[in-house]
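During the no-cost extension, the postdoctoral fellow (Dr. R.K.) reprocessed legacy sequence entries with the updated structure-token encoder. One reprocessed record is reproduced below for audit purposes.
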Amino acid sequence: MVRIMYRVLYPMRTYLIVSGRINEEVNIMTADWVMPVSARPFITAVSVSPRRYTHKLIKRYKEYVISIPTIDMLRDVWIAGSESGPEKIKKLKISFKDPVKTSVPLIKEAVANLECKVIDEHDYGDHTLFIGEVLYVHYDKNVFKEDDIDLRRGFLAHIAYNKFITFREEIFMP
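Re-encoded structure tokens follow.
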């Protein structure tokens, strides 16, 4: 019953959380439980189980990156979410690029990467909510425009039970 209870909130956007340090220890975890907390300053939250390697790295370094994957990265999203530990990085078909404000590598293939510094954390039930101030946003200007987002890139949403969907270009307005 507990599993069903939180699944009624799905579908949820799917993200990749990068943690660790360049040229040291790096991990990537698939996460749905990510959200904005404030626009000014730009603050995000990510909920991570203490059983995850990502949790250990965020606790240690107090930084993380939220990467925005597309349908083209579905295989990597699946591996990052279903396997544990840094050894899975070798199986991923992604490459890293250098950050600007943190020491956490960015995912080159992602359409956006948000560099975050942990400013608070709190344990709630079986997860820790990490609150991060966004220090820098890298994004594909062909996807994220001043007054529009190109939905044809195939942003991912997890519909639970190991199934994903993408957003359609169809727009509804009141």
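The chain has one domain: 12-166. The first strand starts at residue 12 and ends at 13. The remaining legacy entries will be reprocessed before the final report is submitted.
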